[in-house]
């Protein structure tokens, strides 16, 4: 029997990630090849004409799984009945801007959209925040949508996770699909800690295969940390196709489950695991089953890693305070 359609909201749908993401969703890359979808696309009034153009292209592409399109500048209409919300809308970082510069522009957007989601989304709606500062926007959304379960509000660090897989695959000249269990800890920012301590290729630990501690502790980490800035420098625009693809990976694994023996990185509400302060949206290694994520427990954390986990937690604590000061 055909499945009922799932309603997927994409905010900022007329922007560049939106333009890459909506066809992926309509093709079944996010929710599976047998899952019909109805796309809800939200943007702001100045982008209304462009948004309508995206809607026209979706119609023209004749996606068999796409059962309807709502394209609107009205947050209430956009949020009504949605089962999945991918929050891309916001003010992007431009070349030379620090992420903190975009904070005040974005937290007020996330405060007001929290209310629309809380009131009008379907019960148990899963929320993924992509727009930067992603962790802190997600935290603000959580704080201002208190009736949405905190487990349902996440942010995207899967792009960083995938970047880490890509770097290891290139270094070892192995297929990216053979690299497993890297971890992104913390913030989607340059303080994030891409950790390969527990990563493997086949049955072999990545640190043993690479045998270049200096690269692992320095070049690898800074390449992943700075990849977003490197893309902006090269494209004069922030990453879009890789962000869209990673957003699909994030939701697919959350809804459909992670493969046995594999974890992924997601920005989730911290419960104090690994001595990360509770009450931050922090990227952890997670496994997903039955539509719920769980933080992987019991991984050893060496002294080098401990410092990096703490550093990025400190930045998130500062961002949280800054976000609240922007709202007051
Ligand atoms: P973009 O400027 O091309 O698109 C953003 C869209 O959001 C625009 O169409 C804009 O009109 C719209 N918008 C602005 N305010 C809005 C509001 N209140 N409601 C709805 N829509 C609104 O930017 P982009 O390149 O698509 O990037 C989007 C965001 O994603 C940026 O914040 C960027 O920094 C972030 N990003 C995050 C990651 C990640 O891994 N977490 C990766 C890449 C980019
Ligand atoms: C990325 O990681 O590519 C983006 O978050 C960069 C940015 O700041 O928009």
From TrEMBL:
GO molecular function term, any single one: L-malate dehydrogenase (NAD+) activity
Stored PANTHER family: MALATE DEHYDROGENASE
The Lactate/malate dehydrogenase N-terminal domain, residue ranges: 6-153
Any single GO BP term: malate metabolic process
Active-site feature positions: 188
EC numbers on record: 1.1.1.37
Record family assignment: Belongs to the LDH/MDH superfamily. MDH type 2 family.
Annotated residues for binding of substrate: 93, 99, 132, 163
Recorded coiled-coil stretches: none
Ranges for domain Lactate/malate dehydrogenase C-terminal: 157-321
Keyword terms: NAD, Oxidoreductase, Tricarboxylic acid cycle
Residues the record lists as binding NAD(+): 12-18, 43, 106, 130-132
Catalytic activity: (S)-malate + NAD(+) = oxaloacetate + NADH + H(+)
Protein name: Malate dehydrogenase
KW rRNA processing (keyword) present: no
């Amino acid at each position: 029997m055909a499945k009922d359609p799932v309603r997927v909201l994409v905010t900022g749908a007329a922007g560049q990630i939106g333009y890459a993401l909506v066809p992926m969703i309509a093709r079944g890359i996010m929710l599976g090849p047998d899952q019909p979808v109805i796309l809800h696309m939200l943007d702001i009034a100045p982008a209304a004409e462009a948004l309508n153009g995206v809607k026209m292209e979706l119609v023209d592409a004749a996606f068999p799984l796409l059962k309807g399109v709502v394209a609107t500048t009205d947050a209430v209409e956009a949020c009504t009945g949605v089962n999945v919300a991918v929050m891309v809308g916001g003010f992007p970082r431009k070349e030379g801007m620090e992420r903190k510069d975009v904070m005040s522009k974005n937290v007020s957007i996330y405060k007001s959209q929290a209310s629309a989601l809380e009131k009008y989304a379907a019960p148990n709606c899963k929320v993924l925040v992509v727009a930067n500062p992603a962790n802190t926007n997600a935290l603000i959304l959580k704080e201002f949508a208190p009736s949405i379960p905190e487990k349902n509000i996440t942010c995207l660090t899967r792009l960083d996770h995938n970047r880490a897989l890509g770097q290891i695959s290139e270094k070892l000249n192995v297929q990216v699909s053979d690299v497993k269990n890297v971890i992104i800890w913390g913030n989607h920012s340059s303080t994030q800690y891409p950790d390969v301590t527990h990563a493997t290729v086949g049955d072999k630990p990545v640190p043993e295969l690479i045998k270049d501690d200096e690269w692992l502790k320095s070049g690898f980490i800074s390449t992943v940390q700075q990849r977003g800035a490197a893309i902006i420098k090269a494209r004069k625009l922030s990453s879009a196709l890789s962000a869209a693809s990673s957003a699909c990976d994030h939701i697919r694994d959350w809804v459909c489950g992670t493969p046995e023996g594999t974890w992924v990185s997601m920005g989730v509400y911290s419960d104090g695991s690994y001595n990360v302060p509770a009450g931050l949206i922090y990227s952890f290694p997670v496994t997903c089953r039955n539509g719920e994520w769980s933080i992987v427990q019991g991984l050893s954390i060496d002294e080098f890693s401990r410092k990096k986990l703490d550093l990025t937690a400190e930045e998130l604590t500062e961002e949280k305070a800054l976000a609240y000061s922007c709202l007051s």
